[in-house]
Write a structure and sequence with these properties.
The structure holds two protein chains of two kinds. Chain A has one domain. The mean pLDDT of chain A is 80. Chain A is mainly α. Chain B is built from ten helices and no strands. In chain B, helix 3 runs antiparallel to helix 8, helix 4 packs across helix 5 and helix 7 runs antiparallel to helix 8. Classes of the chains: A mainly alpha, B mainly alpha.
Chain lengths: 215, 247
């Protein structure tokens, strides 16, 4: 492709699996865990982060020769905070219920370590286009984990996806419930998210032995 | 006094920053390999939270919330600047961290040596911003309670990182499956600790409120309904039993 050279494609594809921000770089765990009890919240969170990271990386990359390095953290925080305020206002205007569910966690995108981490590691040293791709790639890698965790927690915990029952009706005992299946209330409580991510890391590292840490 | 005690224990155990709302997970995972560094970071978090939460409470109360500008005069009573909270809170935090760093360096070099390297890290720790945002979301009524909330959330975070650091020091001698080593097992242990901390839920009122981020789910509602129905049935049985005795 003329638009994306092989190197550029790698910028997007690497963070999806082998250099995933959550399971490998260990960045941005905070918000990843707290809002994944429902799939819808996970998807909205992922989209918000993709927007903030894409735009933020471009802005920082354009400013990279102007920012004095001593105050760069504050400049970065201000850029992210502005973008997050935009996301928050849009959510409040068009999806009020959802913005209530996400609550303080939209604000916490500001201190999401992925964003600061990518600003520091990539946007400060690369041009806008490559920074944009890197931002989108990392945010997608983050989003993928969020959606996987949200999918399993909502499906196993309440038997719904996006709030729609997919396994039958637990009260009327239809569908899977008619043969004795029960929802696992354990998946709803916050600590379950940690265990699901732990298992994801386990699966990923058993498939790719190169990622295993030295004890 | 009672409300202070209640908030204190609630923020440490029930709404523990790490186990209930997952704040500050990044540094929690990254800096928990040794107990001594974990203690340093934990102390710095308590310190910064104790400074920034009351400060942001004042900002929220007199500048940001709906009608907060009324003290300037009646014509300002309609202003609602709460959309600016993110940027003001993070600016306060970043400035305070810088200021605290300078002051501590000047007056207590020994404290600076033990906390110093962690202070810049803390500006981007979600636990700090989270402390201020949850303070705002929970509408903490007085400055004293805000200070209490900052300190006790900090202590909760400190306990959590201390515990995981101690466990990680020990687990080095265990035979963990290779793909789980390091990050994976830390996640799962934190999850188990979180489940343990859930048992503090009934500590204060016997009424386990779910964390604010999550609405009570349909399962819980159904279970509640069942329990209530059972109670009603029990009551009915008791009544009929009494009736029998009376007759």
């Amino acid at each position: 492709m003329a638009l994306l050279s092989k190197k550029d494609t790698n910028l997007i594809l690497d963070p999806l699996a082998d250099n995933n921000p959550i399971t490998i770089q260990v960045l941005g765990i905070c918000s990843a865990l707290a809002i994944t009890a429902e799939l819808q919240a996970s998807v909205v969170m992922a989209i918000s982060v993709i927007f903030v990271m894409g735009v933020g990386n471009v802005v920082i990359s354009l400013l990279r020769n102007v920012i004095p390095s001593k105050i760069r953290i504050i400049v970065q925080l201000v850029v992210v905070a502005t973008l997050v305020i935009m996301v928050d206002q849009v959510l409040k205007a068009f999806a009020y219920e959802l913005s209530k569910t996400l609550g303080a966690f939209v604000g916490l995108i500001i201190t999401n370590c992925i964003i600061m981490g990518r600003f520091e590691a990539f946007a400060l040293g690369n041009g806008p286009w490559r920074s944009f791709l890197d931002g989108i790639g990392n945010a997608l890698g983050y989003g993928v984990i969020l959606v996987i965790v949200g999918f399993f927690r909502e499906l196993l915990g309440t038997g719904t996806l996006f709030g729609i029952p997919v396994l039958g009706d637990p009260i009327a005992k239809t569908g899977l419930y008619s043969i004795g299946y029960e929802n696992n209330g354990f998946m709803i409580i916050p600590p379950a998210a940690l265990i699901v991510v732990g298992i994801l890391i386990w699966i990923q590292r058993s498939r790719n032995k190169a990622l295993i840490e030295e004890a | 006094m009672l409300e202070h005690l209640e908030l204190f224990f609630k923020s440490i155990f029930i709404d523990n920053m790490v186990f209930a709302v997952f704040l500050g997970m990044c540094s929690y995972l990254a800096v928990s390999k040794k107990v001594s560094t974990a203690v340093g970071l934990g102390a710095a978090v308590i310190f910064v939270l104790a400074v920034t939460v009351p400060l942001n409470w004042l900002l929220d109360q007199y500048l940001l919330r709906d009608g907060a500008l009324a003290w300037l005069g009646p014509e300002y009573a309609d202003y609602n600047l709460s959309f600016l909270s993110f940027i003001l809170f993070i600016a306060t935090i970043a400035t305070m961290v810088q200021l605290v760093e300078i002051v501590v360096e000047k007056f207590s070099p020994s404290l600076y040596n033990s906390l110093g390297i962690f202070l810049p890290l803390i500006a981007v720790n979600c636990a700090i911003l989270g402390g201020s945002l949850f303070m705002q979301a929970r509408e903490i009524p007085t400055l004293g309670l805000a200070l209490n909330y900052g300190v006790s959330s900090g202590i909760g975070w400190f306990l959590a990182i201390l515990a995981i650091a101690a466990i990680r020091e020990k687990i080095r001698y265990s035979n963990v499956p290779a793909p789980l080593r390091g990050l994976g097992i830390t996640f799962i242990i934190t999850g188990l600790m979180g489940i343990g901390f859930q048992s503090f839920g009934g500590m204060l009122t016997g009424d386990n409120e779910p964390p604010e981020a999550e609405e009570p789910t349909t399962v819980e509602k159904i279970e509640e309904k069942k329990i209530i129905e059972e109670e009603i049935e029990d009551d009915e049985k008791a009544i009929s039993y009494n009736d029998v005795i009376n007759e």
